[in-house]
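Q: I have 314 residues here and want to know how they pack in 3D. Can you give me a structure?
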Amino acid sequence: MENVYHIPALLEPTLDGLNIQPGGVYVDLTFGGGGHSRAIMQRLGENGRLYSFDQDIEAYENRIDDARWTFVHSNFRHLRNWMDYYGVEQVDGILADLGVSFHHFDSVERGFSFRFAAPLDMRLNQQQQRTAADMLREMDEEALARVLYLYGELKDGRRLAARICRSRASRPIETTDQLVSVVLRGGETPEALPTGTPIEVLPAQKKDLARLFQALRIELNDELGALREMLCAARDMLRPGGRIAILTYHSLEDRLVKNFLRSGNLEGKVEKDFYGNVLSPFRVLEKGRVADEEEVERNPRSRSAKLRVAEKQE
């Protein structure tokens, strides 16, 4: 079966939420396989414009041959800078699908998955020098425990951090299979298996391993820091009546997006006027829509997606 770069979750509700105007200017902050961008292009007229961001240059292989489309090879945290570069002061809609592409999980050598032995990489931007293996070698035990607890929501994060640090003292943890072995079985770090070797994991162990890998990926790529910067830039760049649609996949990012769209600030502090009316730059239109059973059956990875849409108020 041919590998699929990414299947967009909740595609039609997302496009409907953006309320795309034929002559509008739009930004897809997570180009990936280009599914969302192509769907947006189909709704744009000849004077419409779409800018698509992706920090992974491999996404450019999915480029769109259309004069109305521009690819921006950058992390979406730099939204404001790039729009200034292109002379765009305000936009009509912004889309961000925060899920990691199938491509990253299914590309064994990228090291995002615990299913196969591979270098412990996890870089979303391959021009970044530091890998997950470097991070595990450099991070002290207290900081590692904090990352596993906060970003992986692992209650035994402190114990796992201690086990990792104890094992790396005898041999660096440089591959996914070494990390899995240390976490599940403890002891000294084993020799690495050849890249692509399936890793045997019991069903009951998969959830915690997924959280462990998620925590390391979020920390390495500063995903929440980038999200915070993007949200503030998006708030300032949307023209009145413009819309923002965001797909989240885990509770950490969803909580941040939910509170920001409700309040208009990163602290999630809701301010009210004298009459008790909420003072926010946004009017929330979609409060966490999820995929229906039919879509989940067709695309199981859409199960954890939540769609939030808001409109910039006049």
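Q: Anything worth noting?
A: The two ends are 49 Å apart (CA to CA). DSSP finds twelve helices and nine strands in the chain.
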